[in-house]
Structures are given as C-alpha cells and as structure tokens.
Amino acid sequence: KDSGKDNFRFYTPSMNEVFSRHMLLEKGLREALKNNELELYYQPKIHIITGQVVGFEALIRWNHPYLGLVSPAEFIPLAEETGLIIPIGKWVLRSACLQARIWQQQGYSFVKMAVNLSVVQFQDEGLISEIIRVLAETGLAHDSLELEITEGISIDDNQSFLAKLIELKALGIRISIDDFGKGYSSLSYLQKLPIDTLKIDKSFIQGMTSEKGIDLVEAILTIGHQLNLTIVAEGVEEPSQLEMLRRLGCDELQGYLFSKPIPAEAVEEKLIELGQIKYLEHH
Ligand code: C2E
Ligand code: MG
Ligand code: MG
Ligand code: MG
Hints:
Elements: H1 3-10, H2 13-16, H3 21-32, E1 38-47, E2 53-64, E3 68-70, H4 72-82, H5 85-105, E4 113-118, H6 127-138, E5 145-150, H7 159-170, E6 174-180, H8 187-192, E7 197-200, H9 202-206, H10 211-226, E8 230-233, H11 239-248, E9 252-253, E10 262-263, H12 267-273
Parallel strand pairs: 2-4, 4-5, 5-6, 6-7, 7-8, 8-9
Antiparallel strand pairs: 1-2, 1-9, 1-10, 2-3
Helix pairs in contact: 3-4, 5-6
C-alpha cells in the first residue's frame, strides 16, 4: 500500500494552499463567536474645541487560532456574504451597549457609544426589536447609542431601509453616515435619510495636503453644518490636520493622533492620558 506516501503528499504546503485563506476564514468565522475569539476594541472621539472625549466607537477584532489577528476589513464582508453578520452584529451591539453602561455607572457619564451596522443587518426583520431589547436590558439611554452605517450598494432608494432608519431615529437613537464622500455615499442621502452625523472618510483627511483637498473638506463641512449635522473627521494622524480641521470648524475628531482603537481594559489609562479624568476613580 502507498497510503503513507499519499498522506505525506496530502499534507505538503503546496496542497495546503488549496485550502484558501478565504475558506479557512469562512469556516472559522462560524465558530468564532462561540469560541470567544471575537473582541471589541474602542476608539475615542474627541470634541475639537474642548478636547474632551465625547464617546467611543466599538470596532470588532477577531483573534483567529492559527491566523492571528484578522482585520474586520477582511472578515466583515465575509460575514455579510454568509449571513453571519446577523449573530455577530447582535453580539457587537449587546457587548458595546453593556460596556458603555458600565463606564457610565463607573462615573464616565460622558460616554456615548457608536456601533457600526452593516446594511445587511437591516434585512433582518428583528433588528429594531433587538436594539430596543438590548437598550432596555443594559439600561443604556437611547441617545447614548449611535449607529454608524456604511453601505456597499446604493441605499437611498431602498424603502424598507429608510423606514427602519426613521423608526430608529424616532426612538432617539442617533444615526451616522460613515466614510462619507467615499464609494457609494452620496449627497442625496443628506436629503433623504434622517441622520445626525457625518463622518468624513479618512482619505479626505489625508488629502488635506493640497489646496483642493482642503477646499473639499471645507465644502463638506459647509454642507453638513447647513443641514445641522455634527461632522466627525476620521483618520486624524497629524497635528497639522488637527489645526486645519479646527480652523475649518469641524466638530469632532477621531484618529491615531489621539488614540488607536484599544481594548476596554486600556480605556481608563487612555482617559487619564487625554486629561479626561484625573485619577483612577474606582480603585
Ligand atoms: P470604520 O467604521 O470607518 O472605522 C474606522 C477604521 O479606521 C478602523 O479600522 C480604525 O481602526 C481605523 N482608524 C482609526 N483611526 C485611524 C487613523 O488615524 N489612521 C488610519 N489609517 N486608520 C485609522 P478597523 O478597526 O480595521 O475597521 C475597519 C472597518 O471594519 C470599519 O471602518 C467598519 O466599516 C468595519 N467594522 C469594524 N467593526 C465593525 C463591527 O462591529 N460591525 C460592522 N458591521 N463593521 C465593523
Ligand atoms: Mg465606523
Ligand atoms: Mg469610517
Ligand atoms: Mg472607514
């Protein structure tokens, strides 16, 4: 029998490559939730005038047993394709609201929590009742939650999506358009969708090295403010960007200049570093 040799050949690296990363990830993602491989990191948002932390954005992390840390930019699309975004999204929402409530009770009354929501989650008929349930069970106030929405396809003519946004907004939950200006997000959203906040995509912040780039950010701020929206700049890395955004009158900032996304345990130290709290309040 040759099976020993066959088995040996089966396990050579070249054959392993047949099992693509994509397949490994898809298979692993099904187990990730119940195996506790998912974690939320938190990135602060800073008020541009006071310099105070006004809230956090929850960003998911996946620690894969063999592949290590996998970026959400890679596995969220996969979760959307497979429908796994529904249970994963529920877990994110619940965990982030619970964490926000814990911080508020710890004395960080300023903490608002932003959660990224995939448009695929809006196809789930149970989405709104789930959000209401999570807020009730965690005790988080409706206006402490903001939903950040980025779309892969045009959404402004989707009636059921629009109806759900209107319902969420009526519940007092805040709605934010993420990565504004990039991809499919368009000016028609500003007219049709009931939104509170625009997050200027980080490519526009990086583009502020030219006159044109600065003019473009200024134009977005003018339009947004005319419509009474709060404008957040994402991807702020340089003090020069902070200075320019302050001159242009942007409202809130997010980026590595202040903090990378960090685990919950690191947030207290970060708040001290940012001058938001002066001492360890609960030790
Ligand atoms: P996003 O919501 O636009 O989040 C901003 C991304 O930019 C995050 O990447 C963040 O780590 C990164 N970032 C923040 N500050 C800076 C900076 O100063 N410079 C640079 N270069 N990058 C910065 P991350 O965490 O890898 O997330 C990527 C995307 O994955 C998110 O983009 C969001 O669309 C999606 N995502 C993350 N968590 C979730 C989630 O829980 N649910 C859903 N549906 N999507 C999520
Ligand atoms: Mg976001
Ligand atoms: Mg964004
Ligand atoms: Mg983005």
